[in-house]
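User: Please fill in residues for this 222-position structure.
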């Protein structure tokens, strides 16, 4: 779709160009396999470690996982995370036996200053349903949701609702859910909640994060 070796200025212009290509009208009927993806860094080696963990939507069993390692392709610049993390994530996804029905991304989609975060970039590249689930806010304003599981409030930036602030468990910090690619916001929130069990994060992302930490430790000692 485009080269990855861009300057920061070119990357920003590309985000502005691609954001209007994000669709929210794909049909997703009874997805069985939902993946979480995450990236960790080996800073001294300038390497990235990406993980993809596929979880059954029926019983939360881990179906498959993959780890990929490559030279970190882009510097750390706030708002341009996708240029740093999508290439290693794509490499990890290619190692799976099949592309999962839905991908949950540890990061933002539309909840981004230019409405084109990593979840949207990955989804558009693959033309495949993705959801952005951030642990913290990148931009926008919100009020805290009620304490009950499933409570949510709007995340608003410059007068536009760009996501939902969702309480996935009683008494834990909320997560920030936004459209990645393919699905409307309400459906994104439903799937984020449906794939969350005993912890704050949806299981696919939580397990991808855990595998990332384990793989990073293994590579560091290897």
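Assistant: Residues filled in for all 222 positions:
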């Amino acid at each position: 779709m485009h080269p990855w070796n861009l300057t920061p200025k070119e990357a920003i212009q590309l985000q502005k160009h691609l954001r209007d290509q994000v669709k929210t009208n794909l049909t997703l009927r009874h997805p069985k396999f939902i993946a979480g993806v995450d990236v960790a860094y080996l800073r001294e080696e300038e390497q990235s470690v990406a993980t993809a963990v596929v979880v059954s939507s029926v019983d939360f069993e881990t179906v498959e996982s993959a780890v990929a390692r490559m030279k970190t392709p882009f510097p750390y610049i706030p708002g341009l995370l996708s240029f740093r993390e999508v290439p290693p994530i794509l490499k990890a996804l290619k190692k799976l036996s099949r592309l999962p029905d839905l991908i949950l991304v540890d990061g933002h989609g539309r909840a981004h200053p230019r409405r084109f975060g990593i979840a949207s970039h990955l989804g558009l590249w693959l033309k495949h349903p993705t959801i952005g689930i951030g642990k913290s806010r990148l931009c926008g304003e919100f009020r805290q949701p009620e304490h009950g599981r499933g409570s949510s409030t709007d995340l608003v930036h410059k007068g536009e609702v760009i996501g939902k602030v969702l309480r996935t468990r009683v008494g834990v910090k909320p997560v920030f859910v936004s459209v990645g690619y393919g699905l409307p916001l309400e459906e994104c929130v439903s799937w984020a909640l449906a794939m969350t069990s005993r912890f704050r994060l949806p299981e696919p992302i939580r397990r991808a994060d855990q595998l990332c930490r384990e793989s990073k430790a293994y590579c560091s000692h290897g």
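For context: The mean pLDDT is 95.
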